[in-house]
């Protein structure tokens, strides 16, 4: 008694502890320190599991249940960064209930032996580098409620047996190489609250059975190849708080009930094709993150948005119109790039904010210049007649004291000197909305976006000491990054982009799971979709340079790297993604000596013809040796690839109203890309064709050819049997249209005077000379005629369909004729023997020139007959 009275507080606690332990043991569940040893079968199972995972369990007398850690060794490293819990006991032994082996870079397979841990509830293998597939055996583990195999690099399909988990609440398969479609059995997992399928290669549509997952609070399906429309049942998951659908592959429309979910506080949808829709009605006023990017959304931004307590608002690359009426200070981050917002920007809106991005819009400049602030991005925010004056917020920057022919940037770093060229550093260490106008030089940079789910600002500039100087620093961006040049002399430029993957370092094996994917735009045109540095360079830490041609017409150049929601977002840590670039080098293309100066007389055109022929021959003789080196190696694949859906959307599903004509290779449609670029889409006859890769290569080479008198090929689309070419759009249709408008073709309002006819003729000659003699690959057109010459707004002639005759030939091998070309334009010896010489083109051009002169395409016309005789004489030489 006396002793009890003197018992101090500590001892009393001990006693209570002991007592309660005894009590709890009776019920089988112990909620704190384990006294029972791990069951020998479980210890054995752990050993097998470790082996399958590519590690060994370091034999120790320690009971992992006691220490809460497994001591695992992989290669030579003993690792302890894991946790194990054994919260179940039968009174004699305890059993493993939770196993977390995160960020350990284990390199084995997922262990089917896991089922031997009979009472396991949680398995977490986040960030390892495993191979093999999801074991279907696991499905028999009735206590399992948490599975994460996020970022482990596994492949294969989801076994349909996985619909049998009795009690699963959390399932993350994110950032793997999983493929196939989602089994409908997954709809049986009715207890699921979190389901993450992002960053895999899943296909097909989402099964209807998923409608049963009514307890979902978090659903992520970004970066997949799903098809079909966004299922309406998502709008019935009333507990949904977070929905992520960046580049999922699904199409719009998005059912309004989804936006109206009352608990939704994190909504991220991007890069989805679908019909136009107005800004949706959101119900939850406490929403934190709203990303509706590149969705073909139109209408205006409703004012209620400004009263919500948003932290992040990203409405970039839509077709939003109207004015901004706001003076509130939320959201913290606002990104409105790439819309058609107009009116003046309220002063209060500008002055109260950081992280405001209004670039690429149609605002009107108010009389006083907005104050220039580094976190307010006003690049190309304002409409203007001239691109230069639209660049910045104030017109004062538009007068160029001199014009430049190059610029070189070391992205994210300091000035470096490489072979007498200074790569100027871009040292801005800002984040959010960056506007860095390098006043001393002729280039600048903007960046927009916030690395969501990550609090540090360490993704904007990166460095890696081990790299060559130019690649030891780089700039990244969570949304897009634009480098622009201004006060540039107009003309052709070579744009070299330098990349090296320095973030996904190979030393940590799980980093190999990381995928970085982004799109490259130059002058607003998509030049490379889904660019992947690591793939292009064949590894990390390796430099890769990609070179593009660009034409500067209004003294400005715009290079934009855009994150279209693809690639992993949890390597090396959660919340890391987006484009990365090491350096940029832009220089004016050295002009090849201009070769054709033809004096055209009063009758002019016939003379023009003879002159060009003479010049062709002269040049051919001079450069015969050059032509033998048909070295294509230096030529980069410049093709932009478009998806079929993109083109379908651009042309309103190939609406006949958009049909421009029917060419020798298929129908041509007018279209408009989501960024506003007007294009012409040529749908090649969809015969099954072997070797699409070859086709893409061919197109790649052709699209590398740029000349003022060639129609620019933006890129192509190869999907299934669909082969489409995307060209720049020519306002004035084809030459035949202008010349022979009376002959059944639609009436043309064009009047071609003599000077214009001469200009057209010389233009064609220049284009041909380029194809034959000056370009990196020599091309004989083989089908020069009035319908293959297009006219732009200023009636400049541009040759189209170059390089296609060969494709056609391959396509038609089963048909008797090997000859591409059109009767009447064909040189006699070509028609007979199908010889592939430039002469054939020159001959056709001759016939065409006579047509241009006479305005007739009647084969019996006298002028033509005479002209052809003349040609035959000339071709004798
Ligand atoms: C196991 O018990 C510990 C100690 O009470 C507790 O912190 C942990 O959350 C439990 N783990 C599981 C998986 O129940
Ligand atoms: C691992 O151990 C082997 C042999 O014990 C040794 O040759 C190798 O260099 C070690 N590797 C590392 C990374 O320490
Ligand atoms: C241990 O894992 C945590 C994540 O679970 C990670 O943040 C940490 O960097 C890891 N530590 C080591 C030494 O790998
Ligand atoms: C299912 O999960 C609930 C809640 O986590 C738990 O109480 C129950 O015991 C679990 N059922 C089985 C069979 O493990
Ligand atoms: C859904 O959640 C509610 C409340 O959290 C719970 O009562 C119910 O059992 C859950 N449904 C299923 C199928 O797990
Ligand atoms: C969706 O994809 C699946 C599998 O790739 C395919 O079988 C199906 O035809 C596609 N459906 C549509 C509407 O494109
Ligand atoms: C915003 O504007 C409203 C009316 O337009 C006004 O009542 C309110 O005081 C303004 N708030 C701020 C912060 O300027
Ligand atoms: C903004 O655009 C809308 C239509 O998109 C138009 O009605 C309105 O007049 C424009 N406002 C200004 C200030 O230009
Ligand atoms: C908006 O700006 C873009 C780019 O400057 C321009 O092409 C477009 O015509 C403008 N639209 C309107 C409605 O002003
Ligand atoms: C890429 O690198 C691997 C080794 O890292 C090599 O085996 C392979 O041949 C390389 N591929 C190309 C196309 O260079």
TrEMBL record:
Transmembrane segments: 595-619
GO MF assignments: ATP binding; carbohydrate binding; protein serine/threonine kinase activity
Binding site for ATP: 682
The UniProt record lists the keyword Lyase: no
A cellular component annotation (GO) from this entry: plasma membrane
Domain Protein kinase: 654-877
GO BP field: defense response to oomycetes
Keyword field: ATP-binding, Cell membrane, Glycoprotein, Kinase, Lectin, Leucine-rich repeat, Membrane, Nucleotide-binding, Phosphoprotein, Receptor, Repeat, Serine/threonine-protein kinase, Signal, Transferase, Transmembrane, Transmembrane helix
Topological type in the membrane: Single-pass type I membrane protein
Keyword check for Transmembrane helix: yes
Signal peptide positions on this chain: 1-28
SUPFAM superfamilies, sorted: L domain-like (SSF52058), Protein kinase-like (PK-like) (SSF56112)
Family annotation (PROSITE patterns): PROTEIN_KINASE_ATP, PROTEIN_KINASE_DOM, PROTEIN_KINASE_ST
Compartments it resides in: Cell membrane
Top-rank EC class of the record's enzyme: transferase
EC numbers, comma separated: 2.7.11.1
Catalytic activity: L-seryl-[protein] + ATP = O-phospho-L-seryl-[protein] + ADP + H(+); L-threonyl-[protein] + ATP = O-phospho-L-threonyl-[protein] + ADP + H(+)
Main location: membrane
PANTHER family, per database record: LEUCINE-RICH REPEAT-CONTAINING PROTEIN DDB_G0281931-RELATED, PROTEIN KINASE DOMAIN-CONTAINING PROTEIN
Family of the protein in this entry: Belongs to the RLP family.
The protein, known as: non-specific serine/threonine protein kinase
């Amino acid at each position: 008694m006396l002793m009890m009275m003197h018992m101090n507080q500590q001892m009393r606690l001990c006693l209570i502890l002991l007592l309660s332990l005894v009590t709890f043991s009776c019920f089988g569940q112990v909620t704190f320190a384990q006294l029972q040893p791990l069951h020998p079968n479980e210890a054995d199972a752990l050993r097998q599991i470790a082996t399958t995972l590519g590690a060994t369990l370091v034999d120790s007398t320690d009971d992992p249940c006691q220490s809460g850690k497994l001591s695992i060794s992989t290669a030579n490293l003993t690792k302890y960064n894991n946790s194990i819990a054994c919260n179940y006991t039968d009174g004699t032994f305890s059993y493993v209930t939770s196993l977390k082996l995160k960020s350990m870079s284990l390199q084995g397979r997922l262990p089917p032996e896991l089922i031997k841990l009979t009472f396991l509830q949680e398995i977490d293998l986040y960030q390892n580098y495993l191979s093999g597939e999801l074991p279907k055996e696991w499905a028999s583990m009735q206590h399992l409620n948490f599975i994460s195999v996020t970022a482990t690099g596994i492949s294969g399909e989801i076994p349909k047996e996985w619909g049998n988990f009795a009690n699963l609440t959390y399932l993350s398969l994110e950032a793997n190489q999983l493929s196939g479609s989602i089994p409908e059995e997954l709809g049986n997992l009715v207890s699921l609250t979190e389901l993450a399928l992002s960053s895999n290669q899943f296909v097909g549509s989402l099964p209807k059975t998923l409608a049963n997952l009514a307890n979902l609070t978090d659903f992520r399906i970004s970066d997949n190849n799903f098809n079909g429309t966004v299922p309406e049942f998502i709008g019935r998951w009333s507990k949904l708080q977070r929905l992520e659908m960046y580049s999922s592959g699904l199409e719009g429309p998005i059912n309004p009930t989804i936006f109206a979910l009352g608990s939704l506080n994190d909504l991220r949808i991007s890069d989805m094709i679908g019909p136009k829709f107005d800004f949706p009605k959101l119900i939850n006023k406490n929403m934190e993150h709203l990303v509706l990017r590149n969705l073909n959304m139109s209408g205006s931004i409703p004012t209620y948005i400004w009263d919500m307590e948003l932290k992040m608002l990203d409405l970039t690359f839509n077709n939003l119109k109207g004015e901004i009426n706001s003076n509130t200070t939320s959201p913290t981050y606002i990104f409105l790039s790439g819309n058609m917002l107009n009116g003046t920007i309220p002063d209060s809106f500008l002055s109260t904010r950081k992280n405001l991005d209004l670039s690429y819009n149609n605002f009107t400049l108010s009389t006083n210049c907005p104050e220039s602030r580094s976190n307010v991005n006003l690049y190309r925010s304002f409409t203007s007649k001239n691109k230069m004056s639209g660049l910045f917020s104030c017109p004062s920057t538009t007068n160029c004291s001199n014009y430049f022919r190059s610029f070189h940037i070391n992205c994210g770093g300091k000035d470096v000197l490489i072979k007498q060229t200074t790569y100027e550093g871009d040292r801005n260490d800002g984040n959010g909305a960056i506007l860095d106008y390098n006043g001393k030089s002729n280039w600048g940079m903007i960046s927009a976006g916030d690395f969501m789910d990550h609090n540090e600002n360490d993704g904007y500039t990166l460095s890696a000491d081990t790299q060559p100087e130019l690649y030891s620093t780089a700039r990244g961006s969570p949304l897009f990054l634009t480098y622009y040049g201004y006060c540039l002399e107009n003309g052709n430029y070579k744009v070299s982009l330098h990349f090296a993957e320095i973030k996904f370092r190979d030393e940590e094996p799980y980093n190999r799971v990381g995928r970085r994917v982004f799109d490259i735009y130059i002058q607003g045109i998509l030049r490379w979709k889904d660019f992947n540095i690591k793939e292009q360079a064949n590894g990390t830490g390796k430099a890769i340079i990609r070179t593009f041609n660009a034409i500067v017409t209004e003294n400005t150049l715009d290079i934009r790297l855009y994150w279209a929601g693809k690639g992993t977002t949890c390597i090396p840590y959660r919340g890391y993604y987006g484009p990365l670039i090491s350096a940029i080098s832009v220089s004016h293309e050295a002009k090849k000596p201009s070769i054709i100066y033809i004096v055209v007389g009063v009758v002019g055109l016939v003379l023009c013809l003879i002159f060009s022929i003479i010049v062709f021959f002269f040049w051919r003789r001079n450069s015969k040796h050059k032509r033998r080196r048909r070295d294509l190696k230096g030529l980069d694949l410049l093709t932009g690839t478009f998806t079929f859906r993109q083109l379908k959307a651009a042309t309103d599903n190939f609406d006949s109203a958009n049909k421009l004509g029917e060419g020798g290779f298929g129908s041509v449609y007018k279209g408009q890309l989501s960024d506003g670029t007007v294009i012409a889409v040529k749908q090649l006859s969809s015969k099954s064709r072997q070797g699409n890769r070859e086709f893409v290569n061919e197109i790649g080479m052709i699209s590398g050819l740029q000349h003022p008198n060639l129609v620019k090929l933006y890129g192509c689309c190869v999907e299934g049997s669909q082969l489409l070419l995307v060209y720049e759009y020519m306002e004035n249709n084809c030459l035949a249209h202008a010349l022979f408008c009376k002959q059944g073709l639609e009436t043309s309002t064009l009047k071609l005077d003599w000077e214009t006819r001469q200009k057209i003729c010389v233009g064609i000659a220049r284009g041909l000379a380029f194809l034959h003699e000056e370009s990196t690959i020599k091309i004989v057109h083989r089908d020069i005629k009035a319908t293959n010459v297009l006219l732009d707004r200023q009636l400049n002639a541009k040759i189209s369909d170059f390089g296609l005759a060969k494709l056609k030939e391959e396509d038609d091998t089963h048909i008797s004729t090997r000859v591409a070309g059109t009767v009447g334009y064909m040189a006699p010896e070509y028609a007979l023997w199908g010889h592939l010489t430039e002469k054939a083109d020159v001959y056709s051009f001759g016939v065409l020139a006579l047509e241009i002169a006479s305005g007739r395409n009647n084969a019996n016309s006298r002028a033509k007959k005479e002209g052809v005789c003349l040609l035959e004489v000339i071709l004798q030489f």
